[in-house]
Amino acid sequence: MNVLLIEDEEAAARRLTKMVQEALPGANILECLDSIEQSLNWLINNPPPDLILMDIHLADGSSFEIFQHVKIQSPVVFITAFDQYALQAFKVNAVDYLLKPVKREELDQALERIGRWKKMEGMGSYDRLAKTMQQGGWNKRFLIRLGQNFRVVELKEAAYFYTQNKITFLISHNGKRFPLEYSMEKLEEMLPLEQFFRINRQFIIGLESIKDMYSVSKSRGKLRLEPSTDLDTIVSTERSPHFKKWLTGHQ
Known about the structure:
Distance between the termini: 54 Å
CATH class of the largest domain: Alpha Beta
Largest sheet: 5 strands, parallel
Shape: elongated
Number of helices: 7
Number of domains: 2
Number of strands: 16
Strand order of the largest sheet: 2-1-3-6-7
Radius of gyration: 22 Å
Strand content: 25-35%
CATH architecture of the largest domain: 3-Layer(aba) Sandwich
CATH superfamily of the largest domain: Response regulator
Helix content: 25-40%
């Protein structure tokens, strides 16, 4: 059996490797990955393993983000310290989980259930689980796809967002531009309102990106952003009253 480990704690990864090899004599540990970025790159460029053991908390975020970018066919056993709400979500979606610290007998039971699942059609809706677990909060980071690779960009690195030719871009504080797979409407739902505001159809700006403000008319203002842009950064008429409240911290 080919097994992929996704675990960012070195000691836990060594212990898990030993337990898997004891529970499955002859098991081939393909790789031990410690981040979302590494996991996505591996899953895209390699055949699916027979089993994935996946920690939920990784070095660069929640492993649920992986399922938003790649279709996983392999059975997955999650390793978690989540509360009862999360455990209930796993049960509803017919996947399995192990609580840390992982015990050998619990691993054996999970592997036995995996064996039964493999005889069935479908082994759990992982993308549905990911959506369930990520509801009700804003993004702390973005997974940027660059060709066949992925890069993680922290929200604190984002100066502003804009759309051009039907493509949405994130502009970082150091002037780098990254394409996103989200519409501006979706971004509005994902971003913390106290830090970001949509000034017009084309731009969502971060408070820290505003360098200067100018009056264009009685009801409209123009912003000079940092990093600079040649695109239209005028606050639309309908958004101007809300923009003024946002600037003063009154949403």
